[in-house]
Please model this.
Amino acid sequence: MVEGLHTSADKRTLKKVLDLALAHKETPKIRGGALTPEFANYVEQLVRFATGEDRYWDEPASLLARAIEAWKAAEKRKRGTPSVSFRLHKGADWRETRLVLEIATDDMPFIVDSVTSALADAGKPLSFFVNAVVNVTRDGKGFRVAEGEGKTVAESMVHAEMDPPVEEGEIAILEAEIRGVLADVATSVSDYEAMRARMKAAFEQLERAKPKGVDKETLAESVEFLKKLWENKFTFLGMRRYKFSAKGAKQSFVRDDDGDLGILRDSDRRILKTTFSDEGELSSSVAAFMESNEPLIITKANTRSTVHRRVHMDYIGVKTYDDAGKVTGEERFVGLLTADMYNRPASDIPILRIKEKKAVEAAGFRAGGHNSKALVHILETFPRDEMFQSDVATLCETALGILRLYKRPRTKLFLRRDRFDRFISALVYVPRDRFSSAVREQIGETLAKAFDGYIAAFNPYFGEAALVRVHFIVAIAPGAPAGPGIAELTRRMREITRNWSDGLLDAMREAHEGASPLGLFKRWEYAFDAAYRERLSPAEALDDIAIIEGMGDSKLALRAFRRPGGKASEINIKLYCRNDPYRLSDLFPPIEHLGLNVVQESGFEIRPGQGDSLFFIQDFLTEDRSGRAIDASGVKKLLEETLGAVIDGRTEDDRFNALVVCAGLNWREAWYLRAVAKYLMQAGIPFSQSYIEETLSKHPEISRALIAVFHARFNPAGPAKKEARAKELETAVARVKTLLEAVQSLDEDRIIRRYLNLILSSVRTNYYQRAADGGCKPYISFKIVSASIDDLPEPRPYREIFMSGPKVDGVHLRFGAVARGGLRWSDRREDYRTEVLGLVKAQRVKNAVIVPTGSKGGFYPKHLPAGGDRNAIFEEGRAAYMLFIRSLLDITDNIVGGKTIAPASVVRWDEEDPYLVVAADKGTATFSDTANGISAEYNFWLGDAFASGGSAGYDHKVMGITARGAWEAVKRHFREIGKDIQKTPFTVAGVGDMSGDVFGNGMLLSEEIRLVAAFDHRDIFIDPNPDAAKSFAERTRMFALPRSSWADYDRKLISKGGGVFSRSAKSIPLSAEMKALLEISADAATPQEIMKAILKLPVELFWLGGIGTYFKAPFEENSRVGDRANDAIRITSDEMRMQVVGEGANLGLTQAGRIAFALKGGRLNTDAIDNSAGVDSSDHEVNIKILLSGAIENGELKAASRNALLKKMTEDVAQHVLAHNYDQTRALSLMQVTAAQDIDAYARFMSALEYEGRLDRVVEGLPDDKAVAARKTQGQGLTRPELAVLLAYAKMHIYETLLETKAPDDPSLARELISYFPDETHKFVKAIEGHRLKREIIATRVSNEIVDTCGATFVNQLMEVSGASIADISLSYESARRILDLKNFGAAVDGLDSKAPAALQTDLYNTAVDLLAEQVNKIVSDVEASNALAKRGVAGLVEQYKEPIQALKKALPEILPPSAAQSLQTRIAFWKGRGAPASIADQAALMPALEFAFDIVNLSRETKWGSGAIGGLFFAVGHRFQIEPARAAAKTSMPEGHFDRLAVRRLIDELSQRQGALTKSVAAFAKTEPKGAAKNWLDPMFADWRAKHCVAVERYEKFAAELDIGAGMSVGKLSLLSTKLADLVERTGGK
Model:
């Protein structure tokens, strides 16, 4: 049994294995169930001695399995015959498959190391190995039996595991090898003692014999040496005996077969290749030995040992002598000298000690002197095998040569040819500082070539001296050449080992006319590493030294060049790096992107001086990818600058840089072409970047020509006069077009033409500007006239600025000269322009309520830190934002001292353009101060008005303005369905959390909110049955808590079954209450399933306050929505069950989704309507700041007071903004009421906008003519979302058109300018008057007022009817509303919110709108009114009409005819009956009667009658001559066709004109205005007038009776009636 185990762990493992073995069915056991002692012994040794490296090797079960398999494999074995077997053990997968070797053999020495050496030599490293020696009893057949039943023998059991075979037949080869090894081991072991006995006999016969010619000392040393071997200093493996005789020239050397022992029993084994010649004669070398006076020979056998160690065996040949001292033969021993014979000093080893002694004596040095000691040291460290084999003379000569080397180290060669002509022994000494593996390889190759052999072995020895010794064994064939001689070989060696510094010194001297500069060589002598010296010449090093010396403190320098003899398509690139080299993985792509292939790469370490500084040279041999010749001198500087810019991160790394090499562009020109490509791809060009790169590289001449066009257009150094510049540009463009004729590919032609198109569509660029340090700016920006770009997706902006740089790309789209909108941090690298374009469409609609039109910007940071924390990502994004802002301001005009100034180094091809305002958006909410800081840096005229919402501005979240604005829309929706949500509880679900601006503020706008569910990007909140008061208080607390999340919600305040759940959870358990709320039957659901259920909740309000698009139309695909993150939870409009949607956030629904929801009865507007308060507030801030800056400049305000004033006006600004939200949503409600009946008007309006290129129905999701017809058939009008779009387009149309006219300059409109600003600013009269955007503000106010009051189609309809211009209509409208003075009426109706039915308010509004619209029509149609407006403006027209009309208004109840007066009372009762207060009912009832107010005032002025009197007459005429009934009948039965309706409208106007003419006829008859009330004089006056014109009157009355007006009025009837009235007017003397 083995002794105690190594560790307690081994003990534990053994116990586990034995326990398993006892329970295992296949383990050998004795009676009683115990394991057989032999197997238990084997298991114990297995546990103790096994080594392995797979993960299971030491597991008890694994160990037992191995033991069982090994035991089975050796079940039967005959004594003396080894059992060898291989098997494949298959693991769980192929990686665990192993080849297993099982050996069982008689125990003997050398088994383990012989077997492992054989496996190692076969290239089979072991993954598991164990050898155990077990006493096993076997019967005669070889089977194991119990002790006493057979013969017991110690067996060595080897279990080895290794990688599976890789070649067919490998196992068979391995098995044969192992069996051969075991056979050799067995043979050598069995004959071991016999061989030792023969050795003893050999040295004993030497002692007895008196060999001729052998001195006593040599003989004694030989005997002592052999005795050492006999005393176990030699591992005997085999021996042979030869008999020798010589008779004259004839020699006999015969093998005695009976003398073979050990492995040499195999007659095929040879010790020497050259014992006999090919003819069978004794070789000369063997014969020479036999005839020599050497009693023995020590050398190496030809073959390697298979036993113990896999090395060439040592051959000891001992001569035998007869009594006369004559040689009679040789005893040849082969085996292995023990380590002791190599490790002991030579002076302790017989033969060697005498050689050492004689060599030292032959040298003649003084005993104990320095030289003597040095020589002894040399001999002691001399290669031992070489010392054994060398004679004293050779040894002495070699040692003395080595000694001389130590005194003057240099390269030296010592050769010795094997006496049997099998190899050359070469000792090469090389100065340590000149030695390297490459030097060693070159020397070896030189030696092998010189002797037509090969290097069989080499052994370097370093020692402590300045020399390195390498002992080469050059295997040669018998008769190999003698070689070129030692002198020549030594010269060759010295050439190989010539110190590279020698060449460097020579090169320096040559470069400096024979004298190296002081200290330069010393600094650089040892600077270059061995690899550099091996590969590069000293001459090239001079260039590298010059570059490194010139680097100063720079960390990088580059050099492009072509080595002498290099191919024309090749160019070398070197990088000189201080301290650290660049990773090759970072360098290969930029080099390849230059259009080059890396053929070879080398890296060198350089340490000049004392090694304090460190440089790395990275050397690349490259060639042009297409095999084109490279103009090395021409592109040298360009290539160096480009690669440096890429490495420094100053430009991007892609194949545009190939244009530097193939087209000779510089890196910034390549950058510009890259930027153009990026824009074109963002703009939808159907080609990839790689194809564009390939195209430009394929046509380098065209690429150069395109850059020439760019420089001709924009280089500030070009001609100052536009005419000369235009001529240069024309020539450059013509060059491109000429070159294009040779381009055969249509796609390539398209790409190049798009480049040319974009360059010519660009109007500004910052390309030529420089940073403060004189370097290039880290981005290129250019301004584009979008309308000129070919194939640009609609809608096309007015202008856009595109910027691109290594750190950020971005685009800013503007739809007008005065535009504003947010800048967003986009995460859509491939299509951020598409994202921005989609947003700016909504922004335009949203901005219809404010002064600027829509703009939007987006930037994509390219280098956000991977795995960085939020702060690091934030800062990188902020840095990208700053670059984006600078890129915009770089090419934007400034205003200085009232004058517009162009940016420096910018050639402008457009008009002055100083207005640039930005705002926050996704990801940039906190960046306003940053933007304003850059504005200040640029001294931009807008100052901190440049970016609204900064620290000295209006914080949207603090104001809650966006949410408050959207809440106005929500309140209106609920008012119109009869619910006051400020007083009545209502259920809400939504998207967002209480830390967010819109969601947080929104959920605090009513204490009646019952928020049942919400989610944001982190958590899901569910409160199935919330307590309104408690939840409101908790939401208030959370809103005030910085950076709160739903996770901060007090769970105790959540109703039963609710909770807060993380979106990262795999599954969320559902309570009974949650199941009921969400209508999910399962006990658990994923977060996605729950969020989807929340979107489907039948709540009263769904409040969108977070980012994302959650609703779409059924026909829309998720992939088209543009919000991949929410594809999994998005629902369709069919699944939406809420009553109202409040869009506090942008893009919560697709427009198609909104329309579909509205068509099925859902209530919502659009995000542009609902959340417009944010942009409205920001616009007010910007314009107020511009105003205050003007006030500061002209002394109306102190600068120090500005910020306090801004703060003071916060709520005033909010009220201004909220009024717009109120008005816009009211306008939508008014439009919605008549949407079905007005559908034709909307269709014509859309067509008109399309005709003018202002509208794309597809882009805006508006119905085409076919869809409009279908709606009309179904009695449906446009939905609120559609009306919202048209509301905005109507405003934009009016606004843009007004700015092109003088209408905003009407002095009376100054009050609109003043009203725009808070009351606190009205004292800054000069600043208001001088406001730079006063025209825009006025145009905005007027357009909003018109459309919010009269609807989107009002102006278009009026233009159709009257042919008037938008400017005339707008001024007429402004006049009419001032004349009619309906402001108080509107305010009173607004005051009925939640006090009277919303439908009542809507009808009251529409009544006033009808009156206002009619009076505007009167003004634009009436020549006198139009003339007055044209000559005297709004103020003149108001002066002319206001007082008379107000007087008429007061007189109306008294002057109306009885039937009309009765109708008035009916209308008053109607309004009161619906809940209108008396004052409102009275005003509303009067409004239809005021339809002819302008007609009456005109008549008053013409007749000189008072407006009351002439009004009474006018109404009387209308009733007496059936004009009023006819008019009313015509209005109630309007025809379907548009032109028929126009005809009816025109005829109705004619009737009014005829009515006026008859009124004048009657008044003329009366001559003067009667006194008293009209009712007292009307009848008599009419009787007298009728009597005078009775024939004409009777004829008309007869016709009117026959016309049957009560039956309705067709166009024909109206036309006839108008004709008859005209006839009556003429016959009664009227005009």
About this structure: Confidence is low (pLDDT under 50) at residues 1-5. The first strand starts at residue 51 and ends at 52. The radius of gyration is 54 Å.
